[in-house]
Amino acid sequence: MMRMLSSPTKSSFRHVCARMYCANEANKDILDPAKQISKILMSCPKLGVAVALDQSGIRPTPESVEEVLKRFSNAGMLIYQFFDWASKQRHYEHSIRAYHTMIESLAKIRQYEIMWDLINSMRTKGLLNIETFCIIMRKYARAQKVEEAIYTFNVMEKYNVPPNLAAFNGLLSALCKSKNVRKAQEIFNTMKDRFVPDQKTYSILIEGWGRDPNLPMAREIYREMISDGCRPDIVTYGIMVDILCKAGRVDEAIDIIKDMIYNDCQPTSFIYSILVHTYGIENRIEDAVDTFLEMEKNGVMADVAVYNALISAFCKVNKLKNAYRVLNEMESKGVKPNSRTCNILLNHLIERKETDEAFKVFRRMIKICDPDADTYTIMIKMFSEKGDIEMALKVWKFMKKKQFVPSLHTFSVLINGLCENEDASQACMLMEEMIEKGIRPPRLTFGRLRKLLIEQRRDDVLEFLQQKLNLLVKEPLCD
């Protein structure tokens, strides 16, 4: 049984924050250039990022730059200023990984012209590779710029990076994951003689049709793969099991697993987790438990994914004590829970309106796993909807102390909560910070704040925010 803590109080949350940020941690930050840079970026310096970094005396290293770029990957405008500053420092050269992270950040805010400037810079330095173009194809496809994704593949030759099977698979994957599987199939049919398909090629298409969803086409590609003499691998089998389970064809999925075993391909814990998850959705908790026990009997070690599936199954049938027992078993067997474990429990408790219990779970889980953006957003939303905006802000501050960059959704949830609480000042501060980090606020969130500012007759503040937003939209990379 999970050991519960005392009822949550505001002072207890302060205690959690204080304990996790003791003096020793502060001393470590001074010696860590990535953390020093992160603090400067998080402070939104009025003199500008470059000036603040120059004054700090910090010297960037490839490792610290990569870490900062990864941490601030959602802050396109802000992080580009840092990237540009770092490139001008003596004895420093950007790594391929740094370029790739920056390209992804620019693509998120659709700054494609500057993104291609970086591609040209990489070409002059001889840093371009297949992965560079796969990243661009993925980003274009995700933005539903299908023709641009295909153009990127076709232009590789001009950049002295001849496309190969990996690039071909990258294009198909980008299109399938962005729900353009028909286009991917068309390209596959016209180019499969040029690039001989492998297991990964077929798996990409099968998964794409599964997401469509189009089970007959997924089956057809699976059969074509076998008839072409390309033997399914563990990934292909896993995709087919997943597609069939989502289509409610569990018996057929089990036949695939039997086929795996017949072909000397041992099912993994991931495949078992799909079955456990499916049984959980169908409220077949006994089948979920039996599948888990069968997995252990077959000598397959349970990982965090299958444990999460079992916890989710117990939550689905409101057997929270059993879910806690599974959590304790995970820890006793050395399987570390992750943010997904935490979020499953939090979502279930909040759905049942057990908010005090949810806060207890949150306090326990932050000690044993790293929360993700969803975790913080869930808690901020919970407190905001309860009308406890002070606690929502405490979670926000705790998140910032962990140097976790808020996502667009996290910003929006708290700004909406502040607007509901008619706290225009705090909402405006967050809106300004959001825009300064290069994150464009959703129309609904900005509209709600706009309405509140008009009601409070603060037209000057509204005009100031509107100007900042216009700058982000029109010239997002200007100081």
TrEMBL record:
PROSITE patterns: PPR. Keywords: Repeat. PPR repeats lie at residues 129-163, 164-194, 198-232, 233-267, 268-302, 303-337, 338-368, 372-406, 407-441. Coiled coil: none annotated. PANTHER family: OS03G0856100 PROTEIN, PENTACOTRIPEPTIDE-REPEAT REGION OF PRORP DOMAIN-CONTAINING PROTEIN. NCBIfam families: PPR. This is Tetratricopeptide repeat (TPR)-like superfamily protein. It comes from Artemisia annua (Sweet wormwood).
